[in-house]
Amino acid sequence: MSTFILTARIDEIHQSFFDDLRNMHFPKERNFLSAHLTLFHTLPKTAEILEALQSVEKQPILATVSSLKNIGHGVAYFISSEQLENVHRKLKKNFERYLSLQDQQKFKPHITIQNKVRSDQAKALFDQLNPSFEPFEITISGLDLWLYLNGPWEHTKYFPFS
Fold first, then answer.
1. How many CB atoms lie within 10 A of CB 26?
2. Which class is domain 3-59+81-113+140-160?
3. How far does Cα 60 stand from its chain's mean position?
4. The model's pTM
5. Which of 50, 60, 128, 136 sits at 20 to 30 Å (Cα–Cα) from 97?
């Protein structure tokens, strides 16, 4: 059965920045996606999900890329935003009965630029990027709903925050 994935859409300049890093550092044979900020990994294909997404935040969200972390077998940029957490909390409540174990966990928004590599490769990339890292702001302009296709994703609908 196919399922939905929900991501936050970030501004084009920063999307390009994260995509470039992901294309450089993510294993080529596993990289069939653009960089993404996932809110929910597994949602059922139901009208209820679509209805809930129609009623979310109506203003763009300013978020801070607050840290860079070695996640063991990769590297990710972590995002801080009370507004984004509020959107996630509201949706989580609406989707409660559908949530996978992964989606029931504490929300830790991040954008992964490297994953599924040896730990020494992750450490090397982190050590390369971290000294020059300074927090910066991104704009989240809405939510994107994707259909999971056992690897690649197919864009289904955009829910703008304006």
1. 21
2. alpha beta
3. 16
4. 0.95
5. 60
